[in-house]
Amino acid sequence: MLTVLPPEATRQAPNPLIDAQSQLAEAVELLGYDDGLFTLLSQPRREVTVSIPLRRDNGRVEVLTGHRVQHNFSRGPAKGGLRYSPDVSLDEVRALAMWMTWKCALLDVPYGGAKGGVKIDPTLYSDSELERVTRRYTSEISPLIGPERDIPAPDVGTDERTMAWMMDTYSAQHGHTVLGVTTGKPISLGGSLGRATATSRGVVHVALEALRECGIDPIRASAAIEGYGKVGRHAARFLADAGVRVVAVSDMHGAVTLEEGLDIDALEAYVDAYGTVAGFPGAEQTERELILELPVDLLVPAAIEGTVNERNANRVQARVIVEGANGPITKEADKILANKSCLIVPDILANAGGVIVSYFEWVQANQAYWWSVGDVEERLAERMTYAWRSVLEKSAQLDVPLRTAATAIAVERVAQAHQQRGLYP
Ligand code: GLU
Fold it and tell me: Which residues are registered as beta bridge partners of 118?
């Protein structure tokens, strides 16, 4: 058994980097590679930590911390989101960057993996403060990014506006507009049709496949969605469109349940008006942690890492779990759930729709030729279906869970690219 490198203690347990490295160790062992390859892939190729001095609207100066981690470049430029959250740590960004490498390889998108993070609670800052933070962070990391180097995208706490500011700052420094430096931009600024809903489309695509695989007819299935943000909100809509009863949703303020299924139109209108699902009329109000433990056919954790962990995994009753977030199930929880014969569709497959359409956006921006929404969605579905089938097949062939199979396919592709390129010098 390969020993997982002790990550620098930048974050208290659960540390997602330990989980990410364990998953890699398992795949390396399964594929019969040596520990040299494990050592190479278990750590980032490049990472930078920057100070971001910010003048607040009241004149005070505050210094924030930001990171950009580039895990791997073997298959192409690094790719991955930028997160604004008070919980950002270097180890978290390292884990998320590694998962991006596997996600891109699994979906055969020609990128390596990266991730960025700024330790900030964006809800406590004004729009102009967030713009100044974004521009200064971009300027600090600008030698490392670019359409051929590393291409940021939205993640938790950032959005298309953040990507527009990043693109503008980078472009101003280069003296011309560089649309391909970020993805997830506004449509009016070189964004792709279908990007905003792409992650949720992909989640629902594999969720329906997974339900059928378990012999559950989606039309009669029930679903609970943890997190009603960029991923969870559209996932609720698309699941309901497919006939699934969405019986519970949650966000950081609370959770609501309704056995006969929530009225998604009314829920969307309520959240647009009040900024939360909590208090949604006609539904039962419940503790947000309980949403993970409901007796549903499908659970979509679409918030942050580690919400399904050794403390609650025993109480999870869902038959199918589709990871809308990155790393929502800890390693310990994964083991507990495996004994409950539950089908878990791993993050690097389930939420890959976002980076797939990011790739389409980058291709469109680099060619200055934009596709129809129909083209985008058809090509997205094609890639999700192909990856789903490959993972299912590998899982059956090796007799391992879907996560191990997905990681093994990805690691094999990255290792192959690495071996074919060779080492310089
Ligand atoms: N942040 C998203 C993810 O974790 C999207 C990344 C991208 O499009 O580059 O997959």
Answer: 66, 84
CATH code of 59's domain: 3.40.50.10860
- Is residue 173 domain-shared with residue 313, that is, in the same domain? no
Task: Report pLDDT for 9.
Answer: 40
Determine, yes or no, domain membership for 421.
no
How many A from CA of 101 to the centre of ligand 1? Answer: 11
How many angstroms separate the alpha carbon of residue 354 from the centre of ligand 1? 6
Tell me if 405 CB under 6 Å of ligand 1: no
Its pTM stands at 0.96
What distance in angstroms lies between residue 199's CA and the mean position of ligand 1's atoms?
Answer: 9
Q: How confident is the model at residue 7 (pLDDT cuts 50, 70, 90)?
A: very low
Do both 207 and 170 map to the same domain?
no
Which of 100, 101, 160, 348 has the most ligand 1 atoms within 8 A of CB, as the residue to mutate? 100
Residue where one domain finishes, among candidates 288, 318, 345: 345
User: Is the distance from the beta carbon of residue 326 to the nearest atom of ligand 1 less than 6 Å?
Assistant: yes
Domain extent, residue 296, equals 198-345
- For the stretch 253-310, pLDDT in tens is 999 999 999 999 999 999 999 999 999 999 999 999 999 999 999 999 999 999 999 9
The protein residue whose alpha carbon is closest to atom 9 in ligand 1 is 80
Instruction: Domain count for the chain, please give it.
Output: 2
CATH of the domain at 295: 3.40.50.720
**Same domain for 237 and 129:** no
Q: Which residue from 358, 360, 361 has its CB within 8 A of the most atoms of ligand 1, so it is best to mutate?
A: 358
- Respond yes or no: is residue 115 known to be catalytic: yes
